[in-house]
Amino acid sequence: MEGNTLLQIAKDFGSPVYVYDAEKIQFQYKRLTSAFNKVKHLKLNYAVKALSNISILKLFNQMGSGLDTVSIQEVQLGLKAGFKPEQIIYTPNGVSLDEIEKAAKLGVQVNIDNLSILEQFGTKHPKTPVCIRINPHVMAGGNTNISVGHIDSKFGISIHQIPLLLRIVENTKMNINGIHMHTGSDILDIDVFLYASEILFDTAKHFTQLEFIDFGSGFKVPYKPGDIETNIEELGEKLSKRFNDFCKEYGRELTLAFEPGKFLVSEAGYFLTKVNVVKQTTSTVFAQVDSGFNHLIRPMLYGSQHEISNISNPEGRERFYSVVGYICETDTFANNRRISEIKEDDILAFKNAGAYCFSMASNYNSRYRPAEVLWYKQKAHLIRKRETFEDILNHQIAIEI
Length: 401
Ligand SMILES: Cc1ncc(COP(=O)(O)O)c(C=O)c1O
Description:
Elements: H1 3-13, E1 17-21, H2 22-35, E2 42-47, H3 54-63, E3 66-69, H4 72-80, E4 88-90, H5 97-105, E5 109-112, H6 115-124, E6 129-135, E7 157-158, H7 162-172, E8 175-180, H8 190-204, E9 212-214, H9 232-250, E10 255-258, H10 262-265, E11 269-280, E12 285-289, H11 298-302, E13 308-310, E14 318-324, E15 332-340, E16 347-350, E17 371-376, E18 379-384, H12 389-393
The site of pyridoxal-5'-phosphate (PLP) has 16 residues, from α10.
């Protein structure tokens, strides 16, 4: 989006504010579908956790996407946004049997990732189609917190437990209609995908009733101009061919499913903050903005690098700044960044603020969560109001003391 448009949005809606570009989301969705256009049945299930605003979900619904959900609340949000239950896959980790049964009752595709719940669910509901999440034991992902397919990870059913898994399926006579893996986020090397996919194909051969194979997600997006990213087009070419060959071997046309979050929404998002204080110390110049890890935690959690530009002074002379927040703990967004000269009240735009940014925001320090705006059809639409003091007090109970 143009800096001037973002600046106007900050003026109209105040700061801090999240802004999402609908066109960029649509572009990424089309890019992924065309990369896999040689596959007869392709299903993209947008990972709701990345950015769960109901207007964003409606945009995905309108594009023909399905949804990947991880909680019963995400399922409910998806239904509220107009998705049909059969367009939703529910892939929780470590939830109760009760929650899984609730999701199944709503009619969504259940994906189970542990043998204990699989056995209990299969015994009680042998007719309900179930997908199984496999852990292929592949180390992949840009950070240990987002590498979830390795041997020490809590996710998925180990490939070494396939014999026990098959025994449970046989004993309960349950219907396994899909198999799934998700090995991590920010995976650059497509060979890692292809290698893990072979493990999934091998596993698939054990099940005769499959309708789909879900390859999860984890595509790496660029964080700055010229940055490396997953080569989606090359992956599409190679995996589609392998998938089509597998379907022939398997004897049935299966659906190839993905559940991308970051790839679809990361680059579409901007986080706009206002500079409260420019503070020169003996060693550095801090630009302190009206935000902190209560609104954007990824740099502190994963060391993620969000490009920051001063949209109030884009042509200014570049200087080095540490961009920090107002939280009462160290909340460094960026260290030693070259940014055009910053004055107090300038608006800084953080890029790649679409995925896992607002959805991880909190009220820490009793601050309000920011507003969200969708830039759609050349117009700024408020899609979430900034919180107020009432929201902070909401659900709190002041007892007699
Ligand atoms: C099961 C599952 N599927 C899909 C995703 C989306 O991954 P990404 O945002 O890297 O595309 C995640 C992310 O954590 C996940 O846990």
